[in-house]
Amino acid sequence: MGFQHITNNVYYLPGPSNVGLVVGEGQRAVLIDTGVGRRSGRRLLRLLDEQDLLLEAILNTHCHGDHVGGNAYLVEHTGARVYAPLYDAVMLQYPWWGTMCTFGGAEPPAELRSPRFSPQPSPVDVIVTEGEIEVAGTRLEAVSLPGHTGTHTGYVVSDVFFLGDALPGEAEVSRSALSYAYSVTRWLESLEKVRHIPCAYYVLGHSGIERQISALVERSLARAEETLLFIKGYTAEKSAGASEIMEAVCQHYDIEIRTIKQYFRWYPVIHAFLSHLSNAGEISHEVKNNQLLWHTVKGGDV
Can you say whether the dihedral through the CA atoms of 193, 195, 200, 203 is positive or negative? Predict the structure, then answer.
C-alpha cells in the first residue's frame, strides 16, 4: 500500500506509525514523521521516487523512535532539512539522552537500546515553534501540543490536522489502558486545546483518519480522570511507593508487564500522574525507611 490521498495536496501512509505527505510546488515533498527505523526510510524514499517527488523537508511531531526512525536514512540519501520542536530536537540529535532519561538518568541496560527507545541520530535544521511554516512553497501551521513529550507538536495543512501522538484512537485506547505522557498536566491542556481546533480531517499517530474527534477527546479525558481518582483512593488508604502504585494501577486495568521494555513504558507514565497530583496539592510525599512514599492529602476529594 502506498500513500493514500486525503484532500488537495495532502496524503498519508498508513502503518504502525502514520506518515504524512504534503506535495508542494515543483514536485517537492514534505513528510510529517518518518516511521520506525531505516526500513521505513527506505520504503518512504522508494514511494517518493515512484511518484517523481523530491523530498525537501521532514517535519517531526516528536522525538520517539517510532516517529523519527526513518530520518537518518532519508537525510543521508536526500539531504532533506529536518524541522523539530525544541526539546524533541535535542533527543533527535542525541538519542542517548532519551535512553538515559528512560532509565532514571543512568546508563540503561542493553535491552532498552532499541529503535523504539533509541533511534539513529538525526540532524535538526529548524527549531519549530507554534505558528506558520512555509516549506516547499506550501504553508503549514505548527500547533504546540505538549504532554506526550515536552514539546510535542501537531501540523495543520489544507484543513488536515496531523496530531502525532497527542490523541489516541479507539483501537489504541482498547489495546492500551493508559496513554504515554511525559506530563499529564500538559497533556490534559493539549486535549482541551485540540477539541477547539476544527478541521475537516484528523490524522492520528497510530490510528486512521477521523472526521470528528470529540468522542475520542472525551474518552481520553475520562480515562485520565479515572486514573487520577484511583491513585488518590489507593494512597488515601496507605502511603505507597511508586512501584507499588504502578502494580495497583496495572491490576486495576488488567495490564500485564512481561519485559523490561514494557516496564519502562509504564514507569514514567505513573510518575507523570504522581507529579500532576503532587503539583496540584492533592497528594504529598515523604521519605521513610529509605523509600519515597506518596499519600493523599487529608481533606482532598477522593
Answer: positive
Is the domain of 208 the same as that of 226?
no
Which helix (DSSP H) or strand (DSSP E) does residue 229 occupy?
Answer: helix 214-237
Q: CB under 8 Å to 292, separation ≥6 — which residues?
A: 241, 242, 285, 286
Give the neighbor-by-neighbor strand order of the sheet with 160-164: 131-135, 138-144, 153-157, 160-164, 201-204, 209-210
Q: How many CB atoms lie under 10 A from the CB of residue 72? A: 20
Residues 111 and 175 in one domain: yes
**Buried-exposed string 30-62: b where 16+ CB fall within 10 A, e elsewhere:** bbbbbbbbbebbebbbebbeeeebebbbbbbbb
Q: Classify residue 165: in a domain, yes or no.
A: yes
> Which CATH number fits the domain that encloses residue 256?
1.10.10
Whole-model pTM over 0.90: yes
Query: Residue 173 domain-assigned?
Result: yes
- Domain-embedded: residue 301: no
pLDDT in tens, 133-163: 999 999 999 999 999 999 999 999 999 999 9
Cell of 251: 491490576
Q: Please give the residue range of the domain that contains residue 19.
A: 4-212
Are 98 and 131 part of one and the same domain? yes
Grid coordinates representing 234 are 489507593
